[in-house]
């Protein structure tokens, strides 16, 4: 009986560890680090540097725009939030700009892989449409 309890305890721990592991796809926070992207997209040193530069610039621009909107909301009466359609259009525009900047750096195959990675939702489930 004692042995059976030990086996059950081990199985519960293993099952708990398996559940705690993030599923394949985007890591928590929805972003890959550059080492992950380098491996997944098979980037060479030049491509890695360019992708990192473009992603850093895009994140900074998005952060600045978000802070600008927050400051405008504080200074004025609360404006209506953008509609879902407006937010999706903005996200698609940002995505198109990203791929436009990477078009001359990445191969078609690498761009396709990146599109697939960006479409995978948390845990690789369903469309996401977010950024890296």
Characterise the protein shown here.
The protein is 67% helix and 0% strand. The longest helix is centred in the middle third of the chain and has 31 residues, at 45-75. Mean pLDDT is 75; it is low at 17-29. It is mostly helical and 132 residues long. α3 (45-75) runs antiparallel to α4 (84-102). The radius of gyration is 21 Å and the shape is extended.
Core attributes:
0% strand, mainly alpha, 132 residues, 5 helices
Beta-strand segment tally: 0
Percent range of helical residues: 55-70%
Radius of gyration: 21 Å
Structural class: mainly alpha
Global shape: extended
How many DSSP helices? 5
Give the mean pLDDT.
75
Summary of the model, kept short:
The chain is an all-alpha fold and 132 residues long. It is built from five helices and no strands.
